[in-house]
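debug: dumping io for the single-chain case to check the tokenizer round-trip. Nothing else runs in this session.
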Amino acid sequence: MDYNGLLLSLPKGIKIFFGAFVVILSIGFFTGLLFINETSSNTPAGIEENYLGNEEDENAHIMKFKKGEREMLTIVHTHILSMSFIFFLLGGLVWGIDLPTKLKLFLTVEPFVSVILTFGGIYLMWSGVLWMKYVVIFSGILMTITFTVSSILVLYQLMTKNASVNL
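debug: decoded output
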């Protein structure tokens, strides 16, 4: 079955349905990033402080305590499950757009790697492997870029009749 460019041939109603899904999914994804910005800074020290606390810092504006194991397992568990569904659904749409197979493969597999590196990295950092905070930042940025590019490409092809992306 040839599914490359399948989204281009769908009826208008299905395109609107998929487009609404991607827009709402994007709002949820980027709201999560806003939450991250509110709860920790996007720096290695801020990420470390968010999970390991800052009780020793007398100059801290907001006192933060090290998260417990139960809380960490809940964070890791819920994020890995929910993010895997997000990227599975978005990836299904990516496979229906008109793009080279290697690019689609990257856009649909990389987020799963980043999810494991980001949330596994958070857990390992909490466990004492402090250099993982750099992996968390890198993989989180890559995951966000991949989500954004995939969403834009899907929306672009849903809004056009016969758009072809030649890369």
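debug: round-trip ok. Residues 6-55+64-158 form one domain.
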